[in-house]
Amino acid sequence: MRLPILIFHITGGVLGMLAGAAAMLFRKGSDRHRVAGDVFVISMLCMATAGAYLGFMKHQTPNVLGGMLTIYLVATAWAAGRRREGGLDILSWGGFLFALSIGVLSVLHAAAKISGRAPDNGVPAGMDLFLGSVMLLASAGDLRMLLRGSIAGTERVARHLWRMCFGWFIATGSFFLGQQQVFPEAVRRTNLLFVPAILPLVLLLFWLIRVRFPNAYRRRAPVGAS
């Protein structure tokens, strides 16, 4: 029973990583970018759902929470990319409450590990604390959006970017760093696996800076030009 789900999980993860790379390469807003983005979202949702289920079956709470985090980030990133103008709906409030709940649970689970009241199950308390902090940060962004009543312009694009890239990072980090045993020992010794693992975070910073400060990337008109 677990083997087909594991294969489904791995297939979704590999396809998601490739689709994420394609979405980054294609021109933003183009048809190819949108298609690659849709494939990325579907693949990541499949990967995360299967991963959370496997984590539940193996009593691995961090994997369950990590799967939920991925589902939330990818789904809200897709919604931000599709939303243009206008107000928010009940699903936006549901996303906020979901992120807040998972964030609090992750932090509490980390505290239980630190105090010795819960086993680490091979996952350090720092990882739980990291994932919980990301979820709480995301929930704070949700609350800010909800209090404003809408999201548009630069904030909408930034929301789409960081959530998509972080979801992509979860896939690359889990594969290249979490499954290093599948790579030859010679490759592991070079530490080159860190490059594709953290690449989504590097691109995330680049695009957020470019979106937030667009004038820095625009050519200034020559002096005296009409």
Tell me briefly what this model is.
This protein has eight helices and no strands. The protein is an all-alpha fold and 226 residues long.
List the helices and strands and how they pair.
Layout: H1 2-25, H2 31-57, H3 61-82, H4 90-114, H5 125-148, H6 153-176, H7 185-190, H8 194-212
Helix pairs in contact: 1-2, 1-6, 2-3, 3-4, 3-5, 3-6, 4-5, 6-8
Question: Could you characterize what this model shows?
Answer:
The model is unreliable at 220-226 (pLDDT under 50). This protein is globular. The protein has helices at 2-25, 31-57, 61-82, 90-114, 125-148, 153-176, 185-190, 194-212. Helix 2 runs antiparallel to helix 3 and helix 3 (61-82) packs antiparallel against helix 4. Helices cover 76% and strands 0% of the residues. The chain has 226 residues and is mainly alpha-helical.
Number of helices: 8
**What structural class do the secondary elements suggest?**
mainly alpha
Specify the overall morphology. Answer: globular
Instruction: Please state roughly what percent of the residues sit in beta strands, choosing from under 5%, 5-15%, 15-25%, 25-35%, 35-45% or over 45%.
Output: under 5%
Straight-line distance between termini: 70 Å
Q: What pattern of helices and strands is seen along the backbone?
A: HHHHHHHH
Instruction: Enumerate the spans where pLDDT stays under 50 for 5 or more consecutive residues.
Output: 220-226
What would you report as the Rg, rounded to the nearest angstrom?
19 Å
Roughly how much helix do the residues carry, as a percent range?
Answer: over 70%
> Largest sheet, described in full?
none
Total E-strand runs: 0
Instruction: Return the average pLDDT rounded to an integer.
Output: 85
